[in-house]
Amino acid sequence: MKKVIFTLALAMGFTVAAYSQDYTSAIGLRLGYPTSVSYKHFISEQGAIEAFAGFRSYAFYNWFNIGATYQHHSPISSVDGLSWFAGGGLSAFFWNYDDNFVGDGSTSIGILGALGLDYKFDSAPVNLSLDWLPIFFVNGYGSGFGGGYGALSVRYVLK
């Protein structure tokens, strides 16, 4: 039994070690809350940094946010080009209010989690990513757990 477990563990280790993402960098849009420009770059076989900046506007306020996450990717072996990822990062929100009930503006800093799926099409320079970024606001508007936001990202893969 020990030999079977050792053989399975060794095979799984080679599968993960042999994994290499199908692209190095990609740029595009995060179609979510808020809509953002996204740039993703792999810094190692399984590690990627994603930076994003977005804008959202409502009747009485709007905000601009910037952020970045580190993502650790692991392949889903049953589908070529598909991986899941988990990680974390930071985000800053710059709020501006147009009503008389609240001050002129505010800045919030948030600690992000990251959980999602990443897919690179084999026959096209396109990457899709679906993620959820739970957030904990350290200060400012929305202090405390914010529930996070998710997005579908569509990116062009850079050579």
Walkthrough of the structure:
By secondary structure, the chain is mainly β. The chain has a single domain (22-158), classed as Porin, CATH 2.40.160.20. Helix content is 11%, strand content 60%. It is built from 1 helix and 10 strands; from the N terminus they run αββββββββββ. The protein has one helix at residues 2-18; strands at residues 25-32, 36-42, 47-57, 61-75, 82-97, 105-120, 126-133, 135-137, 144-145, 149-158. It has an 8-stranded antiparallel barrel with strand order 1-2-3-4-5-6-7-10. A hairpin with a 3-residue loop joins β1 (25-32) and β2. The longest helix is centred in the first third of the chain and has 17 residues, at 2-18. The protein is elongated. The N and C termini lie far apart (47 Å).
Instruction: List unreliable stretches of 5+ residues.
Output: 1-20
Output the strand order for the largest sheet: 1-2-3-4-5-6-7-10
**Pairing-aware structural class of the strands and helices?**
mainly beta
Return Rg in Å.
Answer: 19 Å
Percent of sequence in beta strands: over 45%
pLDDT averaged over residues: 83
Secondary structure: number of strands: 10
Q: How many structural units, i.e. domains?
A: 1
Please bin the fraction of helical residues.
Answer: 10-25%
Shape: elongated
